[in-house]
Design a protein that fits this description.
By secondary structure, the protein is α+β, with helices and mostly antiparallel strands. Helices cover 39% and strands 21% of the residues. It contains six helices and six strands.
């Protein structure tokens, strides 16, 4: 599964709806077995749900960085979610991540849409690190420059979603 393509092959997808549904069910059962290839299978499952953006960019949150522009002042903000911390910062070539601000994870009960589905699946399958990373990804960050607060996933999606 991959992102939509401008080469005409997307015309084949409507005729494959049953096969895609079947593949989604197989993937979901596979995930419940907690396989070694969990993240790859999780991303394939997202693609079968037409969540191509998250299928392409979601990492394991061991060392993930997402770059977004602050929606209020347009400064480049680095979002870090991994074992080293969960924060927003201004990235400086010489100094590294400066003026770090802790991320505010989403309350899992308040998640909706794809964020809720992703989180619930990870929790169901005992993938605690993935579930925690998703809560932070769909949570809020504070801009180190202007101190405004914004939703990380919304800003990242609006800046990086493939054109359909």
């Amino acid at each position: 599964m991959c992102v939509p393509s401008p080469h005409g092959c997307d015309d084949l997808l409507p005729g494959c709806a049953h096969a895609i549904r079947t593949f989604r069910e197989i993937l979901d059962r596979h995930l419940r077995s907690r396989p070694d290839d969990y993240l790859a299978s999780f991303r394939f499952l997202l693609a079968t749900e037409q969540q191509y953006h998250w299928s392409a960019v979601l990492g394991d949150f061991s060392d993930d960085f997402y770059r977004v522009a602050c929606p209020h002042c347009a400064v480049d903000v680095t979002i870090a979610i991994g074992a080293y911390g969960r924060y927003s910062a201004i990235r400086d070539w010489h100094l590294g991540d400066v003026d770090r601000r802790e991320l505010r994870p989403a309350d899992p009960a308040a998640l909706s849409g794809v964020g809720r589905r992703m989180h619930e699946t990870a929790v169901r399958d005992g993938q605690g690190s993935l579930a925690d990373g998703i809560a932070h990804l769909f949570g809020h960050a504070e801009c180190p420059h202007c101190a405004s607060v914004f939703n990380v996933a919304e800003e990242y999606t609006s800046a990086n979603r493939p054109v359909m």
